[in-house]
Amino acid sequence: MNSPCFAHNMLLTAVISALYLVGCGNTERQPSPMQQIVKKFAKTTALTGQVIGKDQAMTTGLIKVIDNAGRLLTTQELHGDSHYRLEIPADTAVPVVLVYVPKPDSLETEQLLSVAIEPSITRYDISPLTTAIANGAKALGGYTRANLVMAAENKVNVPDANKTSTGFRGDPTKQYGGWH
Fold it and tell me: For residue 113, what are the domain limits?
């Protein structure tokens, strides 16, 4: 039973088995999903801004602040002034959505939105442009910094003749009204 052929076959079987097991251990591992850091307002924070409609500042209506779970955090009614100041409770996670709801007799007929995504920024105007950016970000998958940036880039009008990817090739004294 202990012939050289038998020993050789046993050794060969052991080596092949070991290589197979080592190969199985080196399969690609799926990277663990990156945990997104949840940013919060560290302390009670006042968000301020102005509500601007299509043609003018909006001086009547209601501003609601809603957290990412859809809970109402606070409200403020506008009475003759388009500026607002809303207190956001400490430990509130961002994003929070600022929603302007016009009064029934208002010139503005649609709700306007703005999204607060960074706790260190406290001024957020609410306008048709911020609404378009918020809706664009939501369509891209939600109110994340990356989605808001992409949505904002899609909403900004840059003349084709002066896009940064091609650079300005005209007379620099005539760009933007001359030398600056």
Answer: 45-126
Give dist(CA 118, CA 41) in Å, integer. 9
pTM confidence score:
0.67
| 88 in Cβ contact with 45 (< 8 Å) | yes
Cα–Cα distances in angstroms (integers) from residue 43 to residues 60, 117, 137, 175, in the given order: 29, 16, 27, 45
pLDDT in tens, 95-143: 999 999 998 876 667 899 999 999 999 999 999 999 999 999 999 999 9
Separation between Cα atoms, residue 49 and residue 51, nearest integer Å? 7
CB 38 within 8 A of CB 118: no
Instruction: Supply the CATH number for residue 52's domain.
Output: 2.60.40.10
